[in-house]
Specification:
alpha+beta; 2 domains; 3-stranded antiparallel β-sheet; 3 strands; about 60% helix; about 20% strand
């Protein structure tokens, strides 16, 4: 009866050490995997961010430029040109611009 208890007492520290080594190895593998996922995620986010819509501000232009653009008539295109505007745009992977929305420049 004493022999099995003695054997268990001798083996228990070795089992605990083996478990600690296994835990450390698993943690190292997990940290490595997390690092790889972080690098891949950054690349993915950069690709996605290029396709997300963003507001671009077109600055107001001179009266002569706006008259030329509007055909010499004071119309909504002339007023927008003189005041400037913002466009919600998205660029595709080839660099083509798609205008999704147009608005006045917000005042603060």
């Amino acid at each position: 009866m004493r022999r099995p208890i003695t054997v268990l007492l001798l083996i228990a520290p070795m089992l605990a050490q083996a478990e600690a080594v296994t835990r450390k190895a698993g943690r190292a593998a997990g940290e490595f995997g997390a690092g790889v996922a972080e690098v891949l995620g950054e690349g993915f986010n950069q690709g996605i961010s290029g396709m997300q819509a963003q507001w671009i501000t077109i600055a107001p232009r001179s009266k002569d430029e706006c008259f030329a653009e509007s055909g010499g008539v004071i119309n909504p295109a002339f007023v927008r040109c003189r005041n400037g505007w913002q466009e919600l745009v998205r660029f595709d992977p080839k660099g083509n611009k798609a205008v999704l929305s147009v608005r006045k420049i917000p005042t603060q």
